Predict the 3D structure of the following.
Amino acid sequence: MFKFIKSVWWIVKKNWYKYILVLFFGIILAVLNLFPARIVGNLTEGIENASNTGQALTKEYLINDIFIPFVTVMVLIYGISFLKRNSQNILTTTIYYELHNKYMKSILAQDGAFFEKFQSGDLLTRALGDINTVKFSAGNRLLNIFNESLTVIVTFVAMIMINPILAVCCFLPLSLILVSNIILRGKVKNNWKKVREKHSLMNNVVLESITNVRTIRAYSKEEENYQKNLKYSNDAYKVELSNLKINVVFEALFKFIVAISTLICFSLGAYFYYKGYITKVSDLVKFVMYLGLFQSPLTAIGNMINNFYQSLISADRLNEIYESKNSVVDLDNLEINSIDKIEFKNFKFHYPNDEFNSLNNINLVINKGETIGIVGKTASGKTSLVRQLVRQLPTDSNSIFINDKPIELYNKENIRKFISYVPQEHVLFSRSVIDNVRLGKDNATQEEIDLAVKMADFNKDLADLTDGYDTIVGEYGVTLSGGQKQRLGIARAFLRNSDVLVLDDSLSAVDGTTEANIIKNLKEYRNGKTNIIVCHRLSAVAHADKIIVLDEGQIVEEGRHDDLMREQGWYYEQYTAQHFKGEVEL
């Protein structure tokens, strides 16, 4: 439990006053809960005295000494319980918000290497299941275990004041609840860790199936995919069932221990009364009622300690995300107002889990206003090169320069404001067309949006959409064609109108006429700004100020279109094949 408290101490420190308020109400409740037993004990004593003296209980006694105090105490217990529960709910909601907020901030601050390590389904499981577990323990169980412990202490003291020997004899079997938790805690923690891991794997498969459902149907893989989902679901079910069995064992064991304690209380209590160690029936009645107050919190403490072992695993899984460090580090916090020059000097790069470099000895200068074409065979390093500009992955220092200064000296968020990157994947949200375009510039006017859509040659498609700009594109743009998705992404980048535009194979799904229109608009409207075009269809870069050809991560050809055609290398061969014989697969 203390390890769990240490892992969530940042929450406790931030909301200490809310914790103190709940604990204050808990202390009052612990004391108030003793009064009903005392009142019942007084009533029993009154009945005993009346029986011994032969006198009836008076109406005034029943009203003034029993009824009014009992009602008053119950009203106070209800009022304080309400205030405690309300304060606790506010605290729990605050914790839930802060856990989610920190979780999302941690994820959004990560680089590409992080998302290669953690899959979407795993992150989703942690965001939903583990955050809920930690929230409930940090907001409810942590306070409840203190309040229940306080109730146990106060009640045990009251029992000792009646008869210390009887109190200790009743407590001894109940202490086995704590002992059993200590013995089984290792098994509980290991099993819960397996539960969370299996749920992460299952959610990965489910998310993958939902995302790629059209591909699964296209290849008639429904049954195979169903069996795959079934396997991972069964694995999760088995470990979850094992966890439930452990909980059942705990619950049954606790009830058995409570039954033994109750049996000792009645048997030994009756014996003590018979022997005269307890002289009043009212004391025995109060003791039995105190035992009821004592047993329930102690059982709850046992269950909560068991749950804390599970919560510790969830807290560790969240801390794994919270403590993940961005491998792309800013060595300084310089800011820029524009990007006038980009330079790669003897640049080399390899992905975190790869042994060999994806890029080697890249030397390239891009001046403001130039259009650069990057072409080459599949997997030659084109995307790896342009991704370095938005600093998605760590690189060697002093190898990429912006305005003649190493890129790592700049604030990476600041640099990204000046670069519009359209990736190979179609990144669309389940929103309207206009909302997807407006992601490029939140405060864009309708005229600016119309111009961006026109530049991306998407305006001709609006008439075919059900609600025009207001058409919902569906998750991942499922209602649009591949070419339409690409052009919406391009329109978003045009709307942003950054100093540098990077089109990473973003014209692959459009026809030749549409491509020509987009390139024509790009030359017209982005004159004086830097454009970097990665493509397979060489006609898209024939107008570029400079074209580089990559092969196995190295620049093997460089120059303008006419220069490369005269060299009659790879570029010449591919351009000729595409121009005269139709495009071939590169």
About this structure: The first strand starts at residue 341 and ends at 349. The chain has 20 helices and ten strands. The mean pLDDT is 83. Residues 328-418+529-586 form a domain with the Rossmann fold fold (CATH 3.40.50.300).
